[in-house]
What does this fold into?
Amino acid sequence: MAKKPAETSMPLVFALVFFVLTTIAFGVMWYMGFSDIESLKAEVDKQKKATSAATGEAKDAQNLVKLYKVWVGVDEEGDKASLVAEHKAGDKMSAELKKAQQTLAKKIGLADASALPASLQTWTVDAGGVIDKDGPSKGIAEVITTAVAERDAAVLKEEKTSELYNAEVKKTQAAAKAAADAAAALRAAADSLPKDFATRIQAEVSKFDERVKKFVATEAGSRKELDTINEELERTKRDKERLNGQINTLQDDLKNAMAQVVKGQNNTFQYDQPQGKILRRPEAGIVEINLGTLDNVRPGLTFTVLPYDYPERGRQSRVKQMRVPDERGTYKTVERFVPKASIEVIEVLGPNLSRARVTDEFDPIRDAAAVGDLLYNSVWRKGSTDHVALIGIFDVNGDGVDDIETVVRDLNRMNIPVDAYFDMKTRKWVGQLTEQTRHIIEGWYPANAANDPNQEDKTKLLAAMADAIKAGRDKGVNTVKFQDFFPRMGYRVKLDLPRDKLNQATAPYLNRVATPPAEPPPPGN
It folds into this structure.
């Protein structure tokens, strides 16, 4: 039998080799595929991180854009709210705002942001790095707009000022030309004056020569008349000696008559003359008058103001009936002389000009002191004043205190000499009544009553005052009530004094016994 060919293992070897190669190939491919996947994952992670970082930077950039838009003042709706929501203390936005303000300060030549003007410090960052959540008070755009408007206004004002300046220059040039023309006219007049003066002198010389001729012609006749006059003079001397005796007798009679007239005189100031007038009333409460240094005016001098037609209408035109209360609360009717106003000199401006303040006006609405009104002072006249004396209680403000020393001081300050005043304590004149003393001003007399515990002391005081006034009248000195005197010179006093205040003012001059209430003061005060 034929021998079978031997079986070979080649297919198996090929299969085995193929399997091994395939396994190796697949292993290599698998390994390489896994490695690529890991690389791709790493790359993806890297891209995610880069994307996140880019997103954050973009967001920061958007916030910074919003920050600048809000600061400048061109932000849109929602920008400020979004910015506040994203902002945290010390973040990039607060740092960027500080940096921007610092850069702005350097750009305009300042040391740092703290030196910026208030108009540019519109948005603040506090010490903790927190931006003011209310946003800037003004946007930079608004600040710039305001600055531009102010600059335009300043330019316009400068243009107007330049126009006014140019106009004034033209006026000055015109005035200079007018002055030059006047100077030329003056020179022409100066050239013609000597000739004219010589002509006039010659005319006067001719007149004088004619007068000399007439004098010579009449001299002979004048000598004869002179002899006749000398004879008449001798006869006149004899008559003069005879008349002197009669005059001495008449003077004694006149002195006695004057005392009687003074005693019965009803209106001492009936024939007062105005001493000046009001020139202007430049402002409320101030007037200018036509009296000054030439008239010996001093600050403190007072005047009564009366209407311009007062000399024609007379005193009665300013007498008014007034209702005043008495001690019992009832009213009585009295007549008062009411001037328009009282003024006090506060500054002497020149020879015939002074300023005065209005101290009182009876009716400032319908009858105020006005231009042209006349000024009166019962004892002051231009360049001179009357001498006065004071007697009685002078409570000028109604506070129950005798103000006689104040009155004396005020009158002297007005340059009104007070020759004497009656000392109620010693009951004698302080000073002396002289031939220059014109008025004795009577103040309040002590009020006396039957039930007054000081009745005896008051009676003695009243008797001493009466003797003092009699001594003044014997010297021809006029007496006048202070209610008539002070209003006529513009000096303010209280014209009505309650009984208790009068007793209070009198008490220091008595034995200090309490005085009960009594009837009102006697008439005449």
Observations:
- The longest helix spans residues 140-264.
- The two ends are 196 Å apart (CA to CA).
- Residues 329 and 344 are 34 Å apart (CA to CA).
- The longest strand covers residues 341-350.
